[in-house]
Amino acid sequence: MKLLLILGSAIALPSFAAAGGDLDISDTVGVSFWLVTAGMLAATVFFFVERDQVSAKWKTSLTVSGLITGIAFWHYLYMRGVWIDTGDTPTVFRYIDWLLTVPLQMVEFYLILAACTSVAASLFKKLLAGSLVMLGAGFAGEAGLAPVLPAFIIGMAGWLYMIYELYMGEGKAAVSTASPAVNSAYNAMMMIIVVGWAIYPAGYAAGYLMGGEGVYASNLNLIYNLADFVNKILFGLIIWNVAVKESSNA
Ligand SMILES: *C/C=C(C)/C=C/C=C(C)/C=C/C1=C(C)CCCC1(C)C
Fold it and tell me: How far apart are CA 122 and CA 138, in angstroms?
């Protein structure tokens, strides 16, 4: 597994690096695509290597964290290319990435809860439904399939529904009887979904809703790139931190 990863990187990286030759260093958004790409790759390697440090029941959580940043790494290579070559917002690549990685983050909640409660599966379904509404509406707005403001409002409703389920729903009650480490993981992941995820609608608003005509592509992409960096890498690190603590107690 690890060998495959290293081998693959050794073969693939030179061509990616070459594609970066077109990057204009004064292009702030382009530079942010490049930095987040590097961060995603580094995080992916980190999560897969760190699997060895944790006990068996936490390994899947770290694998999923690595998949999330790995999938994002792959999409960032393409998104960076679209931006550098055309100056356009890579909406389709962005949403394909989110459509894969957001459900995987819900899987992380499931994995944390499945070990200690019986409500994990039903909570997972609700979170998945909320995230599909959120992303479907966001895509419709950004791709010009729906007017941007109503799409935004429907997307917000999907997100708020998820927050409601996490705070008021069965997950929170169920997790309160679990170990302190599992509790703190659940709480930290909720913070990510409330605070970290708030960066995304802020990006959408800055890109499409801030007065005037047209799309503020630079604001949009800069804020989305920051959001992905925080929400994919920090999210994984929170899980890693709990996994390491719990494993040393066992
Ligand atoms: C790794 C990618 C993640 C965690 C993506 C998260 C995306 C969101 C939280 C998007 C939220 C949006 C709204 C709440 C309103 C409509 C516009 C969106 C789709 C940007």
Answer: 25
Q: Are 188 and 222 in contact (CB under 8 A)?
A: no
Q: How far apart are CA 176 and CA 162, in angstroms?
A: 19
Write out the two tokens for 173.
């009650």
Model pTM score: 0.90
Q: What angle do CA 83, 86, 90 make, to 5 degrees?
A: 45
CA 54 – ligand 1 centroid, Å: 31
pLDDT digits (tens, 9 = 90+) for 151-176: 999 999 999 999 999 888 877 777 87
User: Which residue of 160, 200, 225 sits with most ligand 1 atoms within 8 Å of its CB, as the best mutation to test the pocket?
Assistant: 200
Alpha-helical (H) ranges within the chain are 2-19, 28-50, 56-86, 91-114, 120-142, 148-168, 170-175, 180-191, 199-204, 217-228, 235-249
Please report, as a single letter, which amino acid is at residue 22. Answer: D
Is the CB of 229 within 6 Å of ligand 1? no
Instruction: Give the residue extent of every domain in the chain.
Output: 2-249
For 41-71, how does the pLDDT look when each residue is reduced to its tens digit (9 = 90+)? 999 999 999 999 999 989 999 999 999 999 9
CATH architecture designation of domain 2-249: Up-down Bundle (1.20)
Q: Is 98 in the pocket of ligand 1 (CB under 6 A)?
A: yes
Among 93, 91, 164, smallest CA distance to 129 is for 164
